[in-house]
User: Which sequence fits this backbone?
């Protein structure tokens, strides 16, 4: 995902509406240490800090509907990705300084136009699937108490003009995700307290009724073969724990333990998927 963010920023700098000199410059994401020496005009965006934006943390679970299936899971983590932006020239002396300052100014001016990384710039996993939130972009803002002296020392080079670029992206955690099929219709079943029955329907993993399934109450001679609607009904059973055995041709048998009570007479059986 970080590589896709690199490509998104590159697309922004090379946009058809950006200044011509900026479009013509190389965009690099290499570490600008003492061995870094580009051979042409280059805007270097060095990703040096990745941290969760806790101000944007959201505890509410998110729901997405794709191809008739609801996916429910935890919200993505909002990550601040901070780049150091510098400009580099292959020339020498005053020409080098002039070219670097001009290029850095163009990059700063262009990127300052945007408060977000627009959808047209997003690449790869940042584009498909679409980011659930807008992608904020903050330019030339230094964190409180942050100094660059130690930074340049760690890179082993002399200090040079630079500005920060911080982009906040949403990263999915992939944990505790649940999938549910979209509801197509509502089926209402009814029972009575005076004449209780253990009833329900046999459904596949898509909640489609299963025809011709055999359903039996374990420990009793009661067995039925369900019709097109998947319904079964057993009368004369005692309230308490009961076990149903469901047999479908070509599939493993399924045994379901349930608590049959006056207030809980309807128990659907959902068969596992393939």
Assistant:
């Amino acid at each position: 995902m970080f590589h896709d963010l690199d490509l998104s920023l590159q697309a922004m700098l090379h946009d058809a509406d950006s200044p011509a000199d900026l479009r013509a410059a190389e965009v690099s994401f290499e570490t600008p240490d003492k061995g870094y020496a580009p051979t042409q005009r280059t805007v270097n965006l060095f990703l040096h800090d990745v941290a969760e934006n806790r101000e944007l943390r959201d505890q509410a679970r998110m729901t997405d509907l794709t191809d008739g299936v609801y996916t429910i899971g935890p919200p993505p983590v909002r990550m601040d990705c901070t780049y150091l932006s510098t400009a580099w020239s292959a020339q020498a002396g005053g020409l080098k300084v002039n070219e670097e300052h001009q290029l850095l100014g163009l990059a700063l001016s262009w990127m300052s136009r945007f408060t977000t990384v627009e959808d047209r710039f997003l690449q790869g996993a940042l584009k498909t699937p679409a980011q659930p939130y807008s992608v904020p972009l903050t330019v030339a803002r230094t964190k409180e108490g942050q100094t660059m002296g130690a930074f340049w020392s760690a890179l082993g080079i002399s200090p040079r003009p630079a500005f920060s670029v911080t982009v906040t992206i949403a990263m999915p955690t992939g944990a505790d995700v649940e999938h549910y099929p979209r509801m197509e219709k509502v089926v209402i079943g009814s029972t009575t307290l005076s004449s209780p029955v253990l009833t329900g329907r046999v459904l596949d993993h898509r909640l489609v009724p299963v025809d011709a399934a055999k359903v039996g109450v374990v420990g009793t001679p009661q067995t039925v073969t369900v019709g097109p609607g998947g319904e079964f009904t057993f009368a004369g059973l005692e309230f308490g724990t009961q076990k149903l055995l469901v047999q479908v041709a070509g599939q493993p048998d399924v045994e379901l333990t349930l608590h049959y009570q006056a207030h809980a007479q309807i128990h659907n059986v959902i068969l596992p998927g393939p």
